[in-house]
Design brief:
The longest helix has 27 residues. It is elongated, with a radius of gyration of 18 Å. The termini are far apart. It contains 4 helices and no strands. Helix 1 runs antiparallel to helix 2, helix 2 runs antiparallel to helix 3 and helix 3 runs antiparallel to helix 4. The protein has one domain: 23S rRNA-intervening sequence (de novo design (two linked rop proteins), Up-down Bundle). It is mainly alpha-helical and 146 residues long.
């Protein structure tokens, strides 16, 4: 089957029942941590919006890397939240922190290459510092409840 042909037929019901374990409420739009209040999503949106006007041909790999790092922050928090054990969630929070530092490192590179304005680089740094504090607060809170 060619990739463009997917799906070849209408999806059918799964032969088994899928139930959420209670970590995702019916009204929730994001399974991340309420402690971070969606800041990780706003961070990703902000960084990606800055890359929209960059020259795609010359810096395509760097642009892809910073977009991935920014999005990976929220994705790792969400994935960790969906895990069964707190220890796993904590591990994903540390992975998310690594993505945050990766985005910050790339921000420095983008600023040095005059791809990001000084004010935008400072805004990314400010948002990242707030998210990092909240991540560590959440990690400490989860550890104290183990």
């Amino acid at each position: 089957m060619a990739t463009g042909d997917w799906p070849a037929r209408a999806p059918q019901a799964l032969p088994f029942k899928v139930e959420l374990r209670g970590t995702l409420s019916k009204n929730s739009t994001f399974p991340g941590s309420p402690a971070l209040q969606g800041g990780e999503l706003h961070f990703a949106d902000f960084v990606i919006s800055l890359t929209d006007s960059l020259p795609q041909v010359k810096h395509i790999r760097l642009i892809g890397q910073i977009e991935s790092a920014a999005a990976s922050l929220a994705q790792n928090i969400a994935e960790g939240k969906g895990r069964q054990y707190k220890k796993e969630f904590i591990q994903f929070l540390y992975i998310a922190e690594g993505s945050l530092f990766e985005a910050l490192t790339l921000t420095v590179i983008f600023k040095r290459r005059d791809l990001f304005a000084e004010k935008d680089a400072l805004e990314i740094r400010k948002r990242a510092e707030l998210i990092d504090r909240k991540l560590h607060g959440l990690i400490n809170s989860l550890r104290s409840r183990q």
